[in-house]
Amino acid sequence: VYNATSNELVRTKTLTKNTVVQIDAHPFLQWYSKHYGIDLHKKKKGGKEEDTEEKKSFKVLGKQQARAAGQKIDPTLDDQFQTGRLLACIASRPGQSGRCDGYVLEGEELAFYKKKLEKKKKN
Predict the structure, then answer these.
(1) What percent of the chain shows pLDDT beyond 70?
(2) Which three-class secondary structure state does DSSP give residue 8?
């Protein structure tokens, strides 16, 4: 989606270190709901919510409630979860196979790259 070095690398879809890419949010949604017991994908404002809860032990419920008490998610990151796409930055140098490691953008870094992408779309 974005590379600070050259737009040519974005056009040819070349993976390099510090390239910003879009990734699927579904695996992160599954982990978050399993770890905290909160489903981020459900719409908060309207519609009916289905209660298809799986059976959990009291010990697991206690752990999830303790974790959820201290968690707070950034609104811009929550918007990305609603769309199903997350912005991530590649932290390693990918080899021939195209496998790489990275991290999901959040906070000031996410705001910076969103502003850069909006500016790029206008041009």
Answers:
(1) 89
(2) helix
